[in-house]
Amino acid sequence: MMGTFAVILFIVLTLVLMVYMLIKEKHISSRVPWWLRGVAVCVAAASLAGLAFPIHYQRAVTIDSVPKIHVLTRGVDEKLVDRLISLPDCYTTDIVLAKKRGIPFIEDWSSWLATHRNAHFSIYGFGVSPEQLRSLDRNRGDYQGAPPPRGLVFADWDQEINRGSYCFLRGIYRPVGDGETKLYLMSAGQPVDSTTLQAGKENRFELNYLPKQEGKTVLHIAVVEGGDTLQYEKVALMVQPPRAYAVSLLGASPSAEYKFLYNWLLANHYQVSYRARISKEKFLYVGTGPATGNRSSNLIQELKSTDLLFIDEAEWVQLTNAEQQGIERALAKGMGIILMGDEGSPRSKLGRLFRWKGSKKGRQQMVSVRFRGEESFALDLLVSDLVSLVEDEQVRPLIYADGNLAAATRLQGAGHITALSLNNSYNWWLQGKGKDYAKFWSKLLSLTLPDKKEPLAYVQSPRLPIPYQWTKLVLKDLKQHTVMKGASWRVSALSDPWIPTNQSFSFWPEESGWNKVLIEKDTIAIYAYDETDWRPLRDEERMTVNKNYFLTAEPDSVAGMRVIEGVEVPKWIFCLLFFVSAGVLWCAWRDYN
Amino acid sequence: MEKQEAKHWLMRCRKKMRLYRLVVKAIYGIGIALLGSLLLGWVYVMPCWVTLVCALFIGALYACISGFEKPSLLETAFYLDAKFPELEYSSSLFLKPTSSLATLQRIQLEKVEERVAELSHRPDDHYHVLKKPLLFLILCTLLYTVGHYFQKGSSLTSAETDERFERKPKQEIPMPAVFTNAELQIRFPAYTRLPVREQHDLSIFALKGAIIRLRLHTNTPMKEVALLFNGQKKESMKRVAPLVWESVFPVKESGFYQIQYDGNTSNMYPLEAIPDQPVSITVLHPDPHQNIEPGYAPVVALEAHLSDDFGIKNAAIMATTSSGKGESVQFKSREIALHASGGEELKVKQSLDMKALEMKPGDELFFYLRAHDLAGQESRSDIYVVSWQDTTELMSLSGVVSGSDVKPEYFRSQRQIILDIEKLMAESPKLSKEEGQRQSNNIGIDQKLLRLRYGQFLGEEAEEDNGGNHDHDHRHNPEEGEEEYRESVPEDIAVLQDQLTHHHDRAEDATFFTPDQKAQLKATLTEMWNAELKLRTYQPQQALPYAYNALKLLKDLQQQSRTYVAKAPSKPNPLKPEKRLSGDLADIVEPRVQIERPAKDQRALMITHLRKTLAYFSNLNEDGTLDKAALLLLTGIQEELIRAATSAPGKYLRALKVAREMEESAGVYTKSQVRVLSTAIQELLPQQYDQPAAKRKTPDESIYHHYLNLISRP
After folding, report:
1. Is A111 helix (H, G, I), strand (E, B) or coil?
2. Is B704 exposed, middle or buried (0-12, 13-18, 19+ CB in 10 A)?
3. In this complex, do B615 and A215 lie within 8 Å of one another by their Cβ atoms?
4. pLDDT tens per residue across span B35-76
5. Least CB–CB distance from A286: residue in B593, B611, B685
6. I need a labelling partner for B528 at 20 to 30 A (CA). Which of A203, A517, B185, B432 fits?
7. pLDDT > 70: what percent of chain B?
8. How many A/B residue pairs have CB atoms within 8 Å?
9. Is the CB of A87 inside 8 Å of chain B's CB atoms?
10. A266/B695 Cβ within 8 A
């Protein structure tokens, strides 16, 4: 800021000086013509500015031979260092390597780069940072790689989850030693999930945990081989309190399924209303919300604030046209529907959106209920008649009961409609398996509920920021130009040239741990890791970035190529011009006196 | 005296001097060794012999440093000159050759030689040199004794105490500064035969029922000293001397206690009551249900292993025999005592001769093992059933003839169980809790016996093979119900076979009961099982509906063989023909139930509080100070920690102490404190259940919506 001010001040003063001198020269009489004196004044002022500031111009040059510079970074193979160390143009960005092997250390990347402008850079090791990489010409460099880093080289998890949802941590582990390795996911110093990894090969793993915490929390992942802890990393997680939804249940008759569902939803602090038909146009009403009447208008009004509707097919066919249209409108706007099928399905417009296979009657039997994608995990349910659905390209299968499709969902407008053929899930409650019941309905509801629109939708890069490293947030759907505030700074947004409502912010987290960022009235919490955290993962990422950056592999391939390069005007020209113009003015002044 | 003799006297004196010097050094060495031993003992707790060796080494080192040099004769002469004035500082002349002496020296030598004889007869007074070293040694010994006493006082080991109660606290909790000493005596119940344990640490880990005598010594007189149990119950201590307070109390339940004195409250000390385990009974033989086939000796080999932590008082086999059928069934109970001599283990190897129990073929034996430990706690094994098959039944043709002799037996027993339950409920206010539970359990056992008997109806008839021979692999013709078949064609061929095949090899299907009867009998057994469950869990009131249901179902089964004839013509309500088929529903009322959303109770709020605290603490990696919000969280969770520490002090008391320490130090914490607290909170929080959560709209998806909105604009 001060530098810019000084430059402006200098230019202003130079201009003022020039104008002053021109006026002065105008009013004096001399044998030297006025125009010559005026030119001399202008040249002197311009030379002064030229001496103070560098002036560049571009020119096209043909590359004949390119000096090759070797840049050694962290992770470079020791044998390679032995080979390269004897070469004259060998530098390093790793202070340890510089001290240990006496290789010249690059302290200031940009100034070092300025002194090696036309060189070809060969990078060894895990590579240079993305910021350093961007200052290199893609055509004048190559990446030579390094032995792959060992340990946790990849990990991914949802950094923000709702309470009652599992935190799934998936990753890749590249073995360090030869022994069997165990991975532990830890909360409050206690292991909450673990897995054993095979020795001698790269392993993919998945750990999960239903957090007991609420708010900003940090779990840990530990890699243990024998009695040694090889790696211990932080897993930052934001656990949001659950949101209460408005749910309506419409039944053709009072049923145990709805009764248990109603109680369970109520226990989860949902706003629930239950309407069961007991006679022609006569209903039983149970609800936590305001009392609703039996008129269609009341139901239609209620649907406007309903997130999820349970309805059975028998009830749908008895609804009035206005009610059916009201439900369809709400569905199109995003409301979720769970359609409870029976042996007579399909018999409604909604039911016909799915293909039903008919019922399989038999005695009461235990069926194995599995969610798609979770084949290893099954819930046993006691059922009598089993109605099943048919898989087709329009529906997304959700649940299988003994291999038969029991629930599927499809998009209708902006909302999801889910058909379910199991109608006695309350048996789980009767058998004392409340946990299974909660798991079943939580999953089904989560897949049917309307998408939760976040107040601030953003993409953060990098995923694991560290203090004093550029971190970028791209925010979506911002209506106006915004300012982001940190603990001691303010940053203005940069709008996307194509989608103006997308705005990006770049900033530095100032300390490791949770950093609060205020955007308008909302707060985003970003966890900054220590520089030593997730080292193998960062190295792996850096290697990939370096590998993909350069377009050419060898310096010889660029020989003979014409490139445009920037050249600075030498200072001596300005110095000469200044003295010449000053000499002219002096002569004119001497002549005057 | 000759000069030679004088020289010998000088040499003797030198020997004595050397001896005394050695003794002095040894005394100093021992003194230093004692001091060294004491100091080492304070720094490192080591075995006595190690301390002694170290101390001797220090003493020897001192002796070496100070030197072992022999005093020279000249040095001895100087010493004697100084000691005896009679020698006139001339004893060194004895050491010089006579030839080298001057005349005056010879005269002086002769003069002194005469005195040497007299001096050599004087009593030895060299021991005076030992005065100072001995004084030093005494001082060192005193210091060592006093220091060692305090060292011993601080250790808790008591070799005589049983190892099972030698649970040292994880971290010793210091006494308040005003108390100079604490004497804690734990007197275990007599039957444990454990010696009295004495300790100076205030953490108590004792068997339930033990008597604690706590004596506190104060350094200043106090008005009142009391013990505060679990932060609620206060019990004053008795003053037994001006500076000594005493309290005697039994160990009833786990918790913690504090000492209150003159308005101050001490740290919390754990009080953990370790329960006496009841007798563990393992029956190795026979199996839970055993049949004695015809032709085999009616003897059951019983092999069991009983064990208790302190001793088994008595043990017995409780045998019940049932004989007869139907209404004439008879039960006889008897107790077969086992020899238990109060030992901690008892191995039972006994043969139960069914003839000796007055049983005959067709009878059944139900037995279980019962044992009491020295504390009087009763334990029971599961019930074992032995059936003695009746050969006459094999020859009986009654089943073949009637084909459906399905009249259920023993329904009177079910009625008897109901009567017993009702009786127990009526008497329960007068009964002690233990007695009520015992009776409830006994009725539960009766219910189990009955259930086992009825369970036989569902499987044992097929074994008698009186159902006639027919093809076991025959299948129904699928064409008979083609329409129905088409409607529900299962995809799996195994399922299809299962639906269309009789499984005669399955005990459940191989009976003469009709499917309805089978279902009803199953339902009866379920009701009996539920009744038994409630009775076994000491809930007789809740068992009663199940028992009544079982009886009702049994009565229905009984009535199925009879024809029902209405006793009298019924009186239906008069019909209103004008209302029929009119569709008038005006009188049908629509029920409306308005339910308030359940408010979050205190427990739920507390759990939320714990969740937030756990999340907060998970972020603390280094020592530091809590902010105000965290201090509020910390204050909020203390109530829950107190509750937890009361029930499990060993697990949560440390966490509670840590929470209070952090609060008192205005939020200053260490990493280890955070770890203790986090672990406790993690364990305190209940298991989390799944909850529905809408899918978050990811930014990648919203770009499509955005594009859709843009192209949708007119």
Report:
1. helix
2. exposed
3. yes
4. 777 776 665 555 666 666 766 777 677 766 666 666 777 777
5. B593
6. B432
7. 75
8. 184
9. no
10. no
User: Closest by alpha carbon to A333, among A304, A359, A313?
Assistant: A304
CB-count exposure of residue B198 (10 Å: 0-12, 13-18, 19+): middle
Interface subset of B 378-407, CB within 8 angstroms of A: none
Where b means 16+ CB within 10 Å and e means fewer, B501-517 reads eeeeeeeeebbbbeeeb
Contacts of B499 in chain A (CB under 8 A): 362
On whether the CB atoms of residues A291 and A283 are closer than 8 A, the answer is no
* Surface-to-core class of residue B629, CB atoms within 10 Å of its CB (0-12 exposed, 13-18 middle, 19+ buried): exposed
Closest chain B residue to A292 measured between Cα atoms? B592
pLDDT tens sequence across B384-438: 888 887 766 555 555 444 444 444 444 447 888 888 898 888 888 888 888 888 8
Q: Do B614 and A188 touch (CB under 8 A)?
A: yes
Query: What backbone torsions phi and psi does residue A294 show, to the nearest 5 degrees?
Result: -95, 0
Collect all residues with Cβ–Cβ distance below 8 Å to B459 and sequence separation of at least 6.
Answer: B507, B508, B510, B511
* C-alpha torsion sign, points A442, A443, A446, A448: negative
Say which amino acid occupies B476. H
Crossing angle of helices B671-684 and B628-647, in 10° steps, is 60
**DSSP string covering A238-264, please?**
EEEPPPP-EEEEEESS--HHHHHHHHH
Burial of B579 per CB tally in 10 Å (0-12, 13-18, 19+):
exposed
Residue B226 CA neighbour count, 13 Å, CB half: 16
CA distance B167 to B272: 10
Residues of chain A contacting B701 with CB distance shorter than 8 Å? 451
- Which residue is listed with tokens 């909450």? A192
- Tell me the percentage of chain B whose pLDDT exceeds 90: 4
Q: What is the C-alpha to C-alpha distance for residues B542 and B527, in angstroms, rounded to an integer? A: 12
Extract the tokens encoding B554.
């049994």
CB contact under 8 A, A269 and B598: yes
Nearest to B244 by CA among B267, B221, B263, B272: B221
Chain B interface includes A454 (CB < 8 A): yes
Instruction: Classify residue A102 by its DSSP letter.
Output: -
Q: Which residue of A has its CA nearest to B592?
A: A285
pTM over 0.90: no
Residues 599-628 of chain B with CB under 8 A from chain A are 600, 608, 611-612, 614-619
- What token pair was written down for A147? 């032995």
Cβ separation B488–A281 shorter than 8 A = no
Residue length, chain B?
714
How many Å is the Cα radius of gyration of chain B? 47
**Is A474's CB within 8 Å of B699's CB?**
yes
Chain A residues 249-308 with CB within 8 Å of chain B? 266-269, 271, 278-288, 291, 294, 307
A185-199, A205-219, A395-409, B577-591: least confident range: B577-591
CB A363, CB A370: distance < 8 Å: no
How far is the CA of B260 from the CAs of A326, B107, B235, B641, in angstroms?
A: 70, 90, 10, 21
Residue from B499, B606, B619, B672 whose CB has the most chain A CBs within 10 Å, to mutate = B619
Q: How far is A100 from chain B (nearest CA, A)?
A: 32
Query: How far apart are alpha carbons B637 and B659 in whole angstroms?
Result: 9
Between CA B55 and CA B58 the distance in angstroms is: 5
ipTM value: 0.72
Q: Which residues numbered 198-227 in A keep a CB inside 8 Å of some CB on B? A: 210-219
Distance from C-alpha of A259 to C-alpha of A286, rounded to nearest angstrom: 10
